[in-house]
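Just curious: can you write whichever protein you like plus the matching structure tokens?

***
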Amino acid sequence: PHLLILDEPTNHLDIESQEALEDELTTKATATLLVTHDRSLIRAVGTRFWVIDKGHLTEVDSPEPFIARMLQASIAS
């Protein structure tokens, strides 16, 4: 395929399968639109990032500030 659209692809995978998916996504020349909460996967395979927050779509250089903010919010609640 020329484009993969993946929605939470690691939700039900064991570690070996997660690693195989990560390897596939980083070694193939296939464009991928990935929706996930898996921070490890985001860091490993992401090259461009968009954050949807409060109904607004924003392109960001790195997902780290958003991840840190969400982690702080979950700790506070």
Remarks:
- The helical segments are 15-27, 39-45, 64-76.
